Amino acid sequence: MEQVRDAGLLVLRIGVGGVLFAHGGQKLFGWFGGHGIEGTAGAFDQMGFRPGRTSAVAAGLSETGGGTLIALGLGTPVAGSVAAGTMIAAASVHSPNGFFATGGGYEYPALLGLAAAALSLTGPGDWSRDAALSHRLNRPWMAAAGLLLSSLGSALVVARRRRAVAAREAEPEAAAPADSPQTPAAAPSTA
Q1: What percentage of the chain exceeds 70 in pLDDT?
Q2: pLDDT tens, 79-125?
Q3: pTM (2 decimals)?
Q4: How many structural domains is the chain composed of?
Q5: Which of 56, 64, 98, 186 has the highest Cβ tally under 10 A?
Q6: What is the pLDDT of residues 158-190, one digit of tens each?
Q7: With bands split at pLDDT 50, 70 and 90, how would you rate the model's confidence at 1?
Q8: What angle do CA 17, 22, 26 make, to 5 degrees?
Q9: How many CB atoms lie within 10 A of CB 31?
Q10: How many angstroms separate the CA atoms of 28 and 35, rounded?
């Protein structure tokens, strides 16, 4: 029975870790049809993650590094926590579109984040680098601390992004001259 559990955890780790690695590779290197760091930095800046380049590098490293470590089962509590935190920020971008990914919703990043958090909590199983290292990098307190810190960090990033988006949306109203024939409702949208 334990071998079946370990096989299931291995499959889950490789799947989740592989998807995260691919997404990070798109951001950092332009692999798998991605836009690379420059294109991703511009997109992040437009989404309100400022500075865009720093945010893009952080997200790309979190996904690529976290995905690699999850797949290997190495430092699983920290790797899963970092990936989960990154997916919280990603889900916040998609949340205005509802739940389902078919409508641009947060379904996909939420699923990746929950799977990464679950692996952080359950551990990688016996077929992992953590097990080979006698679980020195896989202690229960590491999962609790990692998830708490990544959640707090994500909350700060999301709040900062919301402030940046609100400030950007307020700019056209503040920049319009007082004698302008356009009313704020008729002004072009920047969203």
Answers
A1: 90
A2: 999 999 999 999 999 999 999 999 999 999 999 999 999 999 999 99
A3: 0.86
A4: 1
A5: 56
A6: 999 999 999 998 887 655 555 544 444 433 333
A7: confident
A8: 150
A9: 15
A10: 8
**Contact status, residue 168 vs residue 116, Cβ threshold 8 Å:** no
Q: Which amino acid is at 33?
A: G
Look up the domain containing 71 and give its range.
Answer: 2-165
* 185: in domain: no
Distance between CA 34 and CA 32 in Å, rounded?
6
Query: How far is the C-alpha of 48 from the C-alpha of 67, rounded, in Å?
Result: 25
Tokens of 5: 């559990």
Q: Is residue 130 part of a domain?
A: yes
Closest CA to 94 of 113, 107, 81: 107
Residue 20 in domain? yes
Q: SS3 string of the chain?
A: CHHHHHHHHHHHHHHHHHHHHHHHHHHHHCHHHCCHHHHHHHHHHHHCCCCHHHHHHHHHHHHHHHHHHHHHCCCHHHHHHHHHHHHHHHHHHHHHHCCCHHHCCCHHHHHHHHHHHHHHHHCCCCCCHHHHCCCCCCCHHHHHHHHHHHHHHHHHHHHHHHHHHHHHHHHHHHHCCCCCCCCCCCCCCCC
